[in-house]
Amino acid sequence: MLRNCLVFIAALGLACSCASARELKEFDNDVNYDESRIPHYDLPDPLITAEGKPVTTAEQWRNVRRPQILSLFANFIYGAVPVPPEPIEQTYKVIKEDKAFMDGKATKLDVSIRFKNRKGAVQTHVVVFIPNDAKEPAPAFMMLSFDSPRGTSLQLSSSRKGRLRNGVPLADLIANGYGYVSVYHGDLIGHNEVSFGRGIHKLFFRDGQSFPKAHEWGVLGANAWTGMRALDYLETNDRIDASRMAVMGHSKMGKATLWAAAQDERFALAISAQSGCGGAALWRRKYGETMAKLNRFPHWLSINARKFNDREDDLPVDQHMLLSLIAPRPVYVASATADTWADPHGEFQSANHAAPVYRLLGKKPLSVTKLPTANKPLLDGDIGYHIRTGGHSVDPYDWDQFIQFANRHLKR
Ligand code: GCU
Q1: Whose CA is nearest to atom 3 of ligand 1?
Q2: What is the pLDDT of residues 288-332, one digit of tens each?
Q3: Pocket lining: 11 vs ligand 1, CB cutoff 6 Å
């Protein structure tokens, strides 16, 4: 509770630094953490088309229902990426190469990806770690991340051997044959963007436009897009196997991760770490963070999403359908017991209710329908899940499960 309160107050501070302590307290009182107060809800069925027809074959899913659901998420939740007024030129430049990173076990590449058209030019800085002893192009984890490539978090930790300062177990990843790619969230869009004047959006604006339309992309849409463009770069790097990429992210970046994997089927696997509201958690449970509370960051979602503040029942989708869009590719959802703001049970129920689509596509959903006990990971299906004890962070325990899950799906 204390953690929720603190994270919440800190986050609210970003949105409105002038809110008084009293106002914050009132807002906090308004958060439901009581399972018995969850309203009755009926989830929309991922296997009934907008026209009311049942989806019974993989072809109907692929050709009819999947595109419908994708379009609903684009137009009502995260915002659609518009067609730019003219093509965007996308170029890559390796700005630094360290072939002897971590005692020669890895190569560290700093890569700049530049986007340019008549409307302007912007760039993002991606950092790629590649195992040096790989005999073939390496599969890799791509983290949509808060870690600035220009800070110190991607340096080796001096106290925790084999880890980066941000806690990523690079030595374990490399020992398991994986590369690691860090994609920074803040180059193409601000954390709590409100002006849209400096980042990627301006390259997409029509003449006279200076703000996204109600159905167009906001911050999470741009974060997801950045990951997809980093994947474009990886397709040009012959030491990485871009067809065996696990995209992952924590919290806000876990939300962007699921949206990236839903849209871009080149991602082979997706991992949501405590993505919570707007990520894996079901909207309709209204437990912890809700649509209205998430929209205190006014442009993380599309402007259209605000219409569903306190009206979650009116949504044409819920987040089990976002996970369903990732099928038949494997997806892993991770929660933590004390991370109540992110609604761990709601994250689990999304993973649970994605089952019909995974089953239709011949894949193995979760083996249980009730929230498992803490620290008992469900690793053997195409949907994976764990809830660990502790709070809002990516811990060594989480990494161990992510690597095991990836080993089952990405190893040849
Ligand atoms: C806030 C926000 C969450 C988000 C989190 C984070 O707590 O309300 O939705 O996941 O920040 O990104 O750490």
Answers
A1: 252
A2: 999 999 999 999 999 999 999 999 999 999 999 999 999 999 999
A3: yes
Burial of 186 (0-12, 13-18, 19+ CB in 10 A): middle
Take residue 175 and report the two structure tokens written for it: 């020992």
Apex CA 84: angle with CA 148 and CA 267, to 5°?
50
Going from the Cα of 252 to the center of ligand 1, the distance in angstroms, rounded, reads 5
Residues of the chain whose pLDDT is less than 70?
Answer: 1-28
CA 269 to chain centre: 12
Query: What is the span of the domain harbouring residue 126?
Result: 71-410
Residue 13 lies inside a defined structural domain of this protein:
no
C-beta of 294 in contact with ligand 1 (< 6 A): yes
- Would you say residue 62 lies in a domain? no
| Residue ranges of E strands in 170-268 | 179-184, 240-250
Give the Å distance between the CA of 359 and the centre of ligand 1. Answer: 32
Can you give the CATH number for the domain in which 170 is found? Answer: 3.40.50.1820
User: Is 383's C-beta closer than 6 angstroms to any atom of ligand 1?
Assistant: no
Catalytic residue numbers? Answer: 251, 392
Beta carbon of 289 within 6 Å of any ligand 1 atom: yes
Count: domains in the chain:
1
